[in-house]
Amino acid sequence: MNTTDYLAEVDRYSAHNYHPLPLVLERGEGAWVWDVEGNKYLDCLAAYSAINQGHCHPALVKAAKDQIDRLTLTSRAFHNDQMGPFLHELCDLTGYEKALPMNSGAEAVETAIKAVRRWGYRVKGIPSDQAEIIVCENNFHGRTTTIVSFSTEHSYNADFGPFTPGFEVIPYGDVKALEAAITPNTAAFMVEPLQGEGGVIVPPDGYLAQAADVCKSNNVLLVADEIQTGLGRTGKMFCSEWDGVKPDVMIVGKALSGGMYPVSAMLADDDVMSVFGPGDHGSTFGGNPLGAAIARAALRVLVDEKLPERALALGDWFMKELRDLDSPHVAEVRGRGLMVGVVIKEESGTARPFCEALMKKGILAKETHEQVVRFAPPLVVEKADLKWALEPIAEVLAATTRVA
Ligand SMILES: *Cc1c(COP(=O)(O)O)cnc(C)c1O
Questions:
Q1: What confidence score (pLDDT) does residue 247 get?
Q2: Which of 72, 198, 365, 402 could form a disulfide with 138 if both were Cys (CB 3.0 to 4.6 A apart)?
Q3: Options 3.40.50.300, 3.90.1150.10, 3.20.20.450, 1.10.357.10; which CATH number does 3-56+306-397 get?
Q4: What's the mean per-residue pLDDT of the chain?
């Protein structure tokens, strides 16, 4: 089968809930991927930051193969010899007392919503069924019916109602709005330290630190969704570190397994996590030994290969190079570490044709929110790879006529 055949098959049999670039990948190594025609591409999306450790990292492949031969799933009805060490290592890395393992990011967000609501009732004393969670405009926390209930993106929730109540939406980056939105029934403020899906939106300096202060003085839990920003992407192990903040609850996923298996977790100290008792919450696959073994290797790679430090150094340099291109189509280059957004001017059309043009030159980037081309390669990317990429990027961005 060639590319056309694969695309036709997907068109025929898949729900049309995505709009992928028209290429079919069959192999990956580090920051590079190959399609079924043998073409090679630099992956500048890294599966929305799930592949921070690079495609098919040998240490992860080995951990997966070793574990798959031994034991893959026990359910939580029994213990297994990988989950405890995994959670221990995750807590050591993050500084939290407890971790609750799930699979997808959305499940970990749902877990956090349950935890903070229950904390609101049982610890803070909010009247039954009155708990409120404050969230931000332009948020992305996943796709479940509860999570899309508080999305401000029309296509994420149109005609998926009725929605889950109990969420207040405020502008992102606005501490005053947070202060004003808090009521005696507010259990938590849930926020992305930097909005990835929202278009690589970097909040004002000190935003998270000020939000943390406001939360603290109002007895409101700060929940940081670090699913995309965490685990090295923004040049720190966690983006919250940029503000010197340790959130009350942290949610991680994506790169937690280096993209080899769905593994996510909610992290908190005992005062919050103790709201869960036996039977209150769970998942058949959550904490399974295969995912746990892979995640342990994924965390080791982040630390051993100093991937946050790499993201910081390469990201600063890469953003400067992109700004220096001085493209007539680019309104702004923004980001942190290797989460970089190139904002296309409205008069130059949308970001999509630029992504298609980049693909033809061997660079895979995906538009987010109409106007933004996101560059977020695996953190193992070499400086030489990014240097190579700058020329085709310059060609695409320098085009004097509209790319479309
Ligand atoms: C990707 C993402 C999620 C959802 O993760 P899934 O694994 O797709 O369910 C939640 N929050 C943020 C910030 C994300 O980037």
A1: 98
A2: 198
A3: 3.90.1150.10
A4: 97
Give the count of beta carbons closer than 10 Å to the beta carbon of residue 384. 8
Which are the contacts of 12, defined by CB distance < 8 A and separation ≥ 6? none
- Give yes or no for a contact between 295 and 262, defined as CB atoms under 8 angstroms apart: no
Length of the chain: 404
pTM of the predicted structure, to 2 decimals: 0.97
Instruction: Report the CATH fold assignment for 58-304.
Output: Aspartate Aminotransferase; domain 2 (3.40.640)
pLDDT of residue 369: 87
- What whole-number distance in Å separates Cα of residue 128 and Cα of residue 274? 19
Instruction: Report CA torsion sign: 102, 251, 98, 238.
Output: positive
Q: Is 253 in the pocket of ligand 1 (CB under 6 A)?
A: yes
252 pLDDT band, cuts 50/70/90, is very high
Q: Is the CB of 113 under 6 A from ligand 1?
A: no
The rounded Å distance from CA 142 to ligand 1 centre is 5
The 10s digit of each residue's pLDDT in 380-402 is 999 999 999 999 999 999 875 55
Ligand 1 nearest atom to the CA of residue 147, by list position = 10
Distance 324 CA to ligand 1 centre (A): 32
Residue 239, pLDDT above cutoff 90 = yes
Ligand 1 atom nearest to 192, measured from its CA: 13
For residue 279 the two structure tokens come to 């039977």
198 lines ligand 1 (CB under 6 A): no
Residues catalogued as catalytic: 140, 225, 254
